[in-house]
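ARCHIVE CARD
CATEGORY: sequence design from structure
SOURCE FIELD: tokenized fold
FIELD CONTENT:
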């Protein structure tokens, strides 16, 4: 029980203007899908939100054909300056409809409104603003002379940051002059469909962006479509492998943003209060449904007990519950399937000998929930130290020397992100240099900016999204 009691402060859903059912967005229009429609629900209440069309192979083919026509007839003929105008317009419309998008995202995904409102949606707008600025400067980006678009990009995104992942994919693709067919995740299609309405509002030429909702098989069809020039995928390493196999030997360009098991390393000279906030943000932000989450805490042995004590105290004050309540810190787990996976891995953690501690908070009766959990006494061989839990579960390991911290941090098949907490700049730079991770935060965690490239090593995938580097994935012959 928290010592601070807050009155409920739910965000109103009156700002939403949802339809009962949504079609596919192909060639600038919402059209019926020929697959069996499915429902999207709120994971916090298990209540139905809307019926969503499912794209069959023929529907995917129609979407790709529309993207190809738009590429040849309109988008590739347009100047970068004009493409940029559309992207600026989209960015401004996202800002205008920010509250509606934040409420829809929290409803469909389960994430706290303070995150969708203050992190996801503002970053979506900034991604479009940022890449709008590049659209007329591609010749001056140091990416080779006269860089050319690839053509039609097939893009597949996960459910943890539905609208933000859409922005990471669509903004650079359009800035570089490509057209797009995007498949949102099955459990979180809502904001992509509201985004389609924004594209209509922005008068984006028909077919430049097409959105095909459906299950994994819709994504698989898109990956295998012969008239797609580029596949950009964010999701699990398992599906990433399948996609890499499907694309091998074709002319398709591929970028993969996959899973992670980031080390968050806390040295004994770190500012402990700040580090505790950073650890909490690192693993409990978005219920830990974050590919770059700091899911392995590596804490120097001499401060282990102090850090763990302070963490437990801090976690006991987090408020779990209604994602639409402005006071909520921990929202709902996105799906029953994800909840089952988190439970299974946590049970394995206990069975393998780690010590489990769970914050004492009331769990709502409806919906999918998992209280913030810490495992101490975790060994490098434990499943909870190796597998991506993708939930609010922190594994704590210890180290004695910087060399041991580096060895343990790199002892993972993944290489997406890492964190370092220390008072010494020289130590931060020396350790960062030896960590095999695409993104390294120092004395902070989970910070994102459109100008900063993001991506992984090893089983976390390849290619970079964000920054000037993010354009190379959508241009012929470009190297950052
Ligand atoms: P997922 O199962 O791989 O799904 C990702 C997307 O791929 C969804 O749209 C999914 O559709 C679709 N899909 C499923 N099977 C497919 C197939 N055979 N061919 C083509 N597409 C297919 O992953 P998830 O559970 O949604 O997301 C969690 C994972 O994403 C975690 O491992 C996380 O680390 C990773 N992630 C990585 C990043 C990054 O930037 N590196 C960012 C966010 C998340 P359905 O939803 O319909 O199944
Ligand atoms: Mg949903």
């Amino acid at each position: 029980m928290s010592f601070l009691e807050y009155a409920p402060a739910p965000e109103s859903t009156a700002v939403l203007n949802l339809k009962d059912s949504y079609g596919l967005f192909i060639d600038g229009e919402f059209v019926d899908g020929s697959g069996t429609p499915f429902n999207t629900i709120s994971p916090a209440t298990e209540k139905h939100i809307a019926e969503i069309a499912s794209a069959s192979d023929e529907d995917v083919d129609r979407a790709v054909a529309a993207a190809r026509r738009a590429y040849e007839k309109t988008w590739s003929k347009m100047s970068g300056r004009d493409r940029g105008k559309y992207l600026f317009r989209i960015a401004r419309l996202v800002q205008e409809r920010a509250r509606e998008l934040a409420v829809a995202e929290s409803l469909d995904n389960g994430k706290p409104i303070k995150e969708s409102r203050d992190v996801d949606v503002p970053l979506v707008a900034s991604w479009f603003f940022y890449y709008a600025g590049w659209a007329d400067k591609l010749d001056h980006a140091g990416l080779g002379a006269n860089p050319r678009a690839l053509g039609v990009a097939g893009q597949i995104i996960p459910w943890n940051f539905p609208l933000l992942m859409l922005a990471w994919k669509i903004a650079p693709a359009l800035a570089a002059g490509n057209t797009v067919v995007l498949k949102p995740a099955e459990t979180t299609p809502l904001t992509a469909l509201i985004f389609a309405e924004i594209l209509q509002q922005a008068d984006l030429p028909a077919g430049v962006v097409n959105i095909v909702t459906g299950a994994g098989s819709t994504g698989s069809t898109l990956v295998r479509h012969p008239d797609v020039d580029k596949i950009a995928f964010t999701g699990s390493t398992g599906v990433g492998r399948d996609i890499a196999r499907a694309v091998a030997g074709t002319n398709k360009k591929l970028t993969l943003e996959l899973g992670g098991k980031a080390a968050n390393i806390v040295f004994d000279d770190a500012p402990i209060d700040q580090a505790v906030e950073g650890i909490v943000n690192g693993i409990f932000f978005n219920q830990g449904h974050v590919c770059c989450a700091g899911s392995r805490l590596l804490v120097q042995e001499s401060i282990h007990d102090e850090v763990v004590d302070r963490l437990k105290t801090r976690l006991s004050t987090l408020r779990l519950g209604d994602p639409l309540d402005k006071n909520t810190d921990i929202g709902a787990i996105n799906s029953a399937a994800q909840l089952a996976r988190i439970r299974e891995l946590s049970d394995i953690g206990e069975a393998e000998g780690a010590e489990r501690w769970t914050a004492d908070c009331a769990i709502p009766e409806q919906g999918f929930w998992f209280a913030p959990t810490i495992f101490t006494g975790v060994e490098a061989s434990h499943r909870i130290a190796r597998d991506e839990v993708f939930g609010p579960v922190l594994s704590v390991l210890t180290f004695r020397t910087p060399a041991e911290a580096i060895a343990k941090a790199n002892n993972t098949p993944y290489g997406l992100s890492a964190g370092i907490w220390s008072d010494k700049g020289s130590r931060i730079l020396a350790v960062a240099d030896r960590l095999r991770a695409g993104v390294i935060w120092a004395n902070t965690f989970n910070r994102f900016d459109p100008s900063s490239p993001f991506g992984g090593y090893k089983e976390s995938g390849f290619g970079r999204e964000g920054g000037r580097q993010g354009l190379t994935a959508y241009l012929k012959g470009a190297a950052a």
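CARD ANNOTATION: The CA atoms of residues 38 and 249 lie 34 Å apart. The radius of gyration is 22 Å.
SHELF: design records, drawer C
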